[in-house]
Amino acid sequence: MTTPDRPSLGVGLIGYAFMGAAHSHAWRTAPHFFDLPLRPELAVLAGRNRAAVTEAAARLGWASTETDWRRVLERDDVELVDVCTPGDTHAEIAIAALEAGKHVLCEKPLANTVAEAEAMAEAAARAAANGVRSMVGFTYRRVPAIGLARQLVAQGRLGEIRHVRAQYLQDWIADPAVPMSWRLEKDKAGSGALGDIGAHIVDLTQYITGQTLTGVSAMLETFVAERPLPTSTGKLGGVGGTETGQVTVDDAAIFLGRFTGGALATFEATRFALGRKNAIRIEVNGSAGSLAFDFEDMNVLHFFDGTEPAAVAGFRRIIVTEPEHPYVAAWWPAGHGLGYEHGFTHQVVDLVTAIGKGEDPTPSFADGLQVQRVLDAVERSAAANSTWTEIPA
Ligand code: SOE
Questions:
Q1: ipTM over 0.90
Q2: Domain Gfo/Idh/MocA-like oxidoreductase N-terminal: where (predicted)?
Q3: Backbone φ and ψ of 357, nearest 5°
Q4: Which domains, and CATH codes, for the chain?
């Protein structure tokens, strides 16, 4: 755990819905389990609605509130700004924060357009020259089984990578009665399933393989074009009324891809896979072995070692809860398992550790920009009848 004599790191969080709650939990929890070089102080929570942000700050453990994010950037007790707002505000807030000399953690996808992401990556590079750090929140990188998968690939246990199969399957808007929310509006979210959850599997497959995508051929579909407008909001969605609004994003994205090393890839991101709740399924086949992961069984990694004698070879089910596994030693006795929230806690740990060491954390805004270029290529390909579309390096 982090001792009280460590210098403090004042945090200002913008946004207090689903991601705001997940990040608040992480900022509170990380110093209790990990020895961090800096001690996070939950200085201020920002949101536009005074009553709602006051209630959220009390519930989530923040010392004070602001109703204008610009005020957060002016405060001397804030050294890091955590951006948990919808995508249309990421660029403005993150760039202003970096220019004010604040470290920035920004939720994914980095931005709504490539142009915004480029401006953010440029601002991050300028700030880094002055020791100001930035990171984009691809939190699933911090699941121990994903970290182990990356290690196995890096150790050559899979050999040459030939196939990457990735799905992110949810079903929370399969019912047409689920009301409109910002995630279904293009001007707020940038895209639909593609940017919200497809971005995660693009990042994860590139992270695990250590390679990047060079091109894609894609299809996008919107199954439910009109939905009730909400009369109340919830973490995802809320309750719908009688008036309706237009869904302006994709409900599902499917694309083929090719990796720098030559591997062929398939991607599927949908919120219409009934019965699949948060199924991030990744399978990688190489010349020496294979691995398979499903977030719905997130403490497990399946590994096939193709160098074993055929008579005894088979997928082994590795329960990724040993102290030797990434992040696990800080938690419970071996075998007890972690959950969704731990990825966010590990994200804070890696960010604060990098800041303490004076290093640039990953994934960087440049990494976020590269994922944005993939999302953009998917949209351009889909608009051109699935034409093969190269991803600019
Ligand atoms: C909703 O689809 C959502 O909360 C995403 O926005 C998150 O990135 C993902 O972690 C879980 O699903």
A1: yes
A2: 10-127
A3: -85, -5
A4: 8-140 (3.40.50.720), 144-362+370-383 (3.30.360.10)
